[in-house]
């Protein structure tokens, strides 16, 4: 702690930390002129808040310009006074997080007093920035129907953002956003300026109750140098603070299985059912500690969910996979408290604590479309965070903002049932090989931003330091994994006179060479340092240049400190010397041209952005080093099968005793992992060009064309094999390297109207996203088809959605009703076409070719005919599918909230609420896994493993709808009603 305090003082004193705090604030700038358009110097520009008594004043410079930086996002009043002129007032100016509001004022002669009231809800054309972003205001957060009450789902109302498939077992109940074609592991979320990201495996960490969120900004592309650690989007969340009035709210939301339908893929003939319900209680209250100076705010939420997850069950007699429900309970508690203190006119301090504890049961990460009930896992996640900020007004033109935060994350996952994992072509059974496991993360963060105003220049500079201490406790592969080549046995392979699961054929088994010993990595630590400079230069009244430069550096994501500990048997594969990636310079340049009356602006620019490398990469080299967690890959019973009799001998491995086959080189991308000495942080070059136009009825239209080129993204490439004495056989060597790219091109269109009585946000995205891997930078699955030709991996991302349209609105209706709908329409995602064993895709086809290269099953069959005519794959023909099979499904959902507020005693409001999700009960087929996000069965599994059987050349299960979007409870799932009541005072 002494070290932290000393370092905090040094960092603040030297102004060498981040802009994270600056991104949780807003900026007001403009110019003051007289009636002849001459600049008015030395005018006093003052902003005030009626809610808190906040006030700040600055003089105009010689050219009449003024700038007020680091303002709290709020509704403020602006007053301009100058000797010899009438005082001008602008009331109700809306300042939003991460935004810059430009207000130019012409002063009248002293005899005329001007007061202009501006609607705080009015959207305005951005006339000063080139970032592609949007702000979700408090109105939308409060009134729109949210399935699960996670405010981050509102980011999907912004073009360029889609839901991301699940990539990590610790994120089974998280809302993960895919922005600009990335898959969600990257991105950067800050809450009140504090980093809220998982440096261990990626994705967001702590959730905060909807009651405590004031607003949030999502910058999808081309954000300024103040933000970093993301090659896709940045989300800046601002929590609510207290005011000079005691205010509070209480809400209760309830759902029940009697009020909703069942997923379309549920097998109703089974007769199984499972009750599911959810109750959420939330409350918030805040007020003054010292009137006009100090305020407090606290919020809490509890969710109790007796949930269910759709699971598969093998019916051996019928040779079918039945679908039923399995219990998936969830208990989630959120809480936060905040104190704000304006010590004097120069110093403002804020301190916030937030915590969350979640315990749930659900499906583990899926490599297939569905898992069994035994494949579920129990998770416990605990989060704690404290963040403090200090804003110092050094002079009217110089402001310093410092942030310090500390957070902890503790995750533990255990299986529902004992292993091993049974990987069938169409489903997963047994216990996931990924559990038990646990991770912890502690983050220390110091940040500082200095804002300097000089005439037309708004200059910000600062930096950031983070210390992340992480640990892994991994019981992975202890129970092992069997890779079956058929869903059901075809004949009596073991010669016992009956056909049952003892006759199942499996290709390989994978198990830890130390099955009684978990892999423990107690010190996967890293320091992150960055600094930046950003200048928004108002070159002339209608033209602003946004110029910035950011530098970022990690100390140990590449395991630099332990390179001498790498297994000597793979040292010959390491080329050159290993060092930190020290050239991560990110220049950003943009412009905003707003000619005429400021109702139209044209903006664009270019920038380089760097993504974080998660510490899981370090754990792969340290864990899968051939010694700490040696993976024994052994031959399955298929290697012992007699081609003449169709039987295997008694000494062959069996389902009862599977791990006895001979050693094989590592299958997939496990083996011995090494980090390439030249690995670099993934980076994306981002280009944008667009315009905004104010339309009638206070509506703003925005159109952006964007192009992103990602380089140095990570993939695991097999580069050879070595004899590993620990496993007693050969082991594959996998090089973790920065050698693949990503591409994203999109047209982003949005229209927004702000009003308390009627407002809306409409968004349309037309996009194409390509990359080289489905597993999003953690190469833990199957490796590339040809390690020497990575170009063969190039294809659409698993969540590539070409078209997406959303419309959210809120309006006052007759009889005092308030109506708020959300409509979503989207095209289907592509589907990988996998070999009959389900291990790899068909090598002759593009990755995720279903729905892109092949539009119908007939298209696929024509390609299979040609492929089989040329010898098939390794001399084996592939089975055919139905001509009418589908590769993907569009998404359509209509959510609606209707409420009726009643006011009592002048200030107490009671609001009964009815919500319905997916009102028209549209079936939306969609999965959850990066391996198969389409939701349709994508393995060419044969109806029979007997080459003499006609079923050998048929795959009747291919293209079968397996899972629906949202499962039982989630967005796009079956129609569901929710009833609630909200009280405010």
TrEMBL record:
Subcellular locations according to the entry: Cell outer membrane
Gene3D superfamilies membership: Carboxypeptidase-like, regulatory domain (2.60.40.1120), TonB-dependent receptor, beta-barrel domain (2.40.170.20)
Pfam entry (one): OMP_b-brl_4
One GO CC term, this protein: cell outer membrane
Entry keywords, A to Z: Cell outer membrane, Membrane, Receptor, Signal, Transmembrane, Transmembrane beta strand, Transport
InterPro entries for this protein: Beta-barrel_TonB_sf, CarboxyPept-like_regulatory, EF_Hand_1_Ca_BS, Oar-like_b-barrel, TonB-dep_rcpt-like
Ranges of residues in domain TonB-dependent transporter Oar-like beta-barrel: 238-305, 331-964
Gene Ontology biological process terms from the UniProt entry: siderophore transmembrane transport
Keyword hit for Signal: yes
Domain of life: Bacteria
Entry protein name: Outer membrane cobalamin receptor protein
